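To fix ideas at the outset, we first show an illustrative case, written as a sequence plus integers encoding its fold:
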Amino acid sequence: MVALTWPPFVALFACSWIVVLCQETQELKVKPGEDAILQCRGHRGATIDLIKWIRPDMKSDDYVFFRDGSSNENNQHESYRGRVELRDPEMKDGDASVILKNVNINDAGTYECQIREKNEKGKAELVTIVNMTVSETQELKVNPGEDATLQCQGHRGADIEVIKWIRPDVKSDDYVFFFRDGSSNENNQHESYRGRVELRDPEMKDGDASVILKNVNINDAGTYECQIREKNEKGKAELVTIVNMRVSGHTAGHKEGGDKEGGGKERNVGLRVGLPVCVILLLLGVGGFVILYNRPKGNQQPAINRHELQNLQRD
């Protein structure tokens, strides 16, 4: 009998596939200021000996949360101290989930949960990956001619270095508003927004990145995104807020849904002129049809009355 053996690379592939199946990837969306639950679960009924929550996308070896018999803040990243706790301190049914309190935009990123069960040897095993997005979606309704406040809030007390307000629903790379190094920049600002957008608080106290859009018109309706980057942070600005702005009401003869200012008035005039013309054309058409219908056809002889018919029969 020939013994079956697997080539080393086949065995390695199979083991890797099993590990991938055991891992779970979650997508989590949280608003600034809320508490986020980062879920992670080991085997049901298992006694968990070690829990590690880390941020692999951060350039730091410090933990988000670490528990080895008891919570340990010695190697915890300073931005997470006092903000992370177990959802269930008893970790019943292998629950290794944690609650991250008072989320801010700096918390957006990838989180990994690693656990080791009791009597297991070796390092903790990766169980769950959580991709967390921190943003807020607002609905805003404004009348034409009014000023609109597009609200955006970063981490309270943060020193904001870059602010970008963009319109992702329009085909343009130009900004609605751009702020960097202590001043706004109009070089790459869309021409329709120049001179119309300013910071609500020029000092940006408490991370306020809100802007005021002056004298709103129908073309301003759409989706706005606020992206900010705080000082000493690397990489691109992070999405914080999405504002869906609707412009309603009317001004200068404009009605909601019109393409141009005064378009509604032009349509009303067209209706007033067009309806009488249509009625006249309809009457002319009916009259012409009646005349043509009653006109004798070319080959048709005049009708013979009864008296003429009797005379013809005598002859």
